[in-house]
Specification:
By secondary structure, the chain is mostly helical. The chain contains 17 helices and no strands.
Length: about 450
């Protein structure tokens, strides 16, 4: 059979219905992202016990709480880049090892300094895991389900945060705050053999990088998945000189994609973190109780979970770029008008749920958009750079909101100003190139 009549390995996966082994890889990526969510939440859940044992001030605890975000930013950008150079599976395993060691180090920390170092180290693994899990799930999906699976993987992070809040009570009852970290370390460690035995290297990566014995490795993986057919392993003339380098993110048409995705994600994260960090305090200032403020935050989370699920399934039938622009606009409008619905608790809970729906839908949808917007050769690098930049919004959003409140501005003025981040993201997406089949 001539090579002209054979499909390339990536085409076999793109064009065929997904098999059970492909869905298994996606499920493992979802669970790994849930582990990331647990790890990020762990320091907040352990905070009270840490403060009591070491006699920390609020300022010292405040220093510890966000340290994993520093590691995450570094891990997203630098370790995420390794996924494009050395393989999705290898980096996946490396990040599991880093998370295991980092969580164990946190569990056995003997002072604030050692705990701080372990949290930054753990963040490296969390950030790298986000990039590698996104790339791996994308390349094991077919074209029809790619946005669905990648958004589901992104939703695993939120699911992990929920699980952490549920397990923490039982862990603290049976031990002290260290149990939260050691439990996370054991779960991370248990994932290592799962990945070793059940997650082969990405076929797309092998096809592009062509390491020694790549054809045999691809053939073996295709057979495990359930595809028993010959494939074209020749090098297409157009790709002979393809550069597989992170620098491609800032070259040619890819530079435009990278900048647009950075603006889009950073803008929404800025609005999102302002909203979730300041709403409980802001509604308390209006005259509601702290418990009622917590209820608002809870409804934001419920709306967010609903939005993530809705985005995942809607992306199968509606263009993802269009969905993202709609949801970014919805995020901007719902955050901007939230203060006008604070007259009663019921109205405020409804408004918070709606804002959470759009904000979380955008976060999940962004992961799906990465898979379509970036060339496969730099998908891991692209995810890492965009998400790493987005960490800045997690700091800037609450900080700028605090400055505006401190300057005497009311919630009626601050919310519309901070909602501009999501609106900026919607405008940026209008310029995303159409030829990248965004939305499948």
């Amino acid at each position: 059979m001539s090579s002209q009549s054979l499909r390339r390995p990536s085409e076999i996966l793109d064009q065929s219905p997904m098999r059970g082994r492909q869905w298994l890889v996606v499920i493992i990526c979802i669970l790994a992202m849930a582990l990331d969510g647990y790890d990020v939440m762990s320091i907040s859940l352990a905070g009270a016990g840490i403060t009591q044992e070491w006699g920390l001030t609020k300022a010292e605890l405040g220093f510890l709480l966000p340290l994993e975000f520093i590691g995450m930013a570094i891990g997203l950008i630098f370790i995420g880049t390794l996924t494009d150079l050395y393989g999705r599976r290898m980096v996946f395993l490396l990040c599991l090892i880093i998370i295991t060691l980092g969580m164990a180090g946190s569990g056995y920390a003997f002072n604030m300094e050692t705990l701080a170092a372990s949290r930054v180290f753990t963040g490296l693994g969390i950030g790298g895991m986000m990039a590698s899990a996104t790339a791996l799930s994308s390349e094991y999906s077919n074209t029809k389900n790619r946005s669905l699976t990648v958004i589901m993987v992104a939703g695993g992070y939120t699911f992990g945060i929920y699980l952490a809040s549920q397990f923490s009570g039982m862990l603290l009852e049976g031990g002290d705050w260290r149990a939260i970290f050691t439990f996370g370390a054991w779960i991370s460690f248990a994932f290592i053999p799962v990945v070793v035995f059940l997650v082969p290297e990405s076929i797309g990566f092998l096809e592009r990088r062509r390491p020694d014995g790549f054809a045999e490795k691809i053939s073996t993986t295709l057979e495990k998945i359930g595809f028993d057919e010959s494939f074209d392993s020749s090098v297409p003339a157009a790709e002979d000189e393809e550069k597989i380098s992170p620098m491609r993110l800032f070259e040619g048409e890819t530079r435009r994609i990278t900048i647009i995705m950075m603006i889009c994600y950073l803008g929404n994260i800025l609005t999102y973190y302002y909203f979730v960090k300041w709403m409980p305090a802001a509604v308390t200032d209006i005259g509601y109780t702290a418990v009622e403020g917590t209820r608002v935050l809870g409804m934001i989370s419920i709306g967010g979970l609903t939005g993530s699920i809705a985005m995942a399934f809607a992306s199968r039938v509606v263009n993802l770029k269009t969905l993202m622009i709609i949801c970014l606009t919805g995020s901007a409008v719902s955050v901007a008008v939230f203060p006008f619905f604070t007259g009663t608790l019921t109205m405020m809970l409804v408004a918070g749920t709606l804002a959470g729906f759009f904000l979380f839908a955008v976060i999940g949808g962004a992961f799906g958009l990465f898979a379509y917007a970036f060339p496969p050769a730099v998908l891991g690098s692209g995810v890492g750079v965009v998400l790493g930049t987005g960490r800045g919004g997690a700091v800037v959003g609450p900080w700028v909101g605090g400055i505006l409140f401190a300057g005497g501005m009311s919630l009626y003025l601050v919310s519309p100003i901070m909602a501009a981040g999501s609106l900026m993201g919607a405008i940026a997406l209008l310029f995303l190139p159409k030829q990248n089949k965004v939305g499948g």
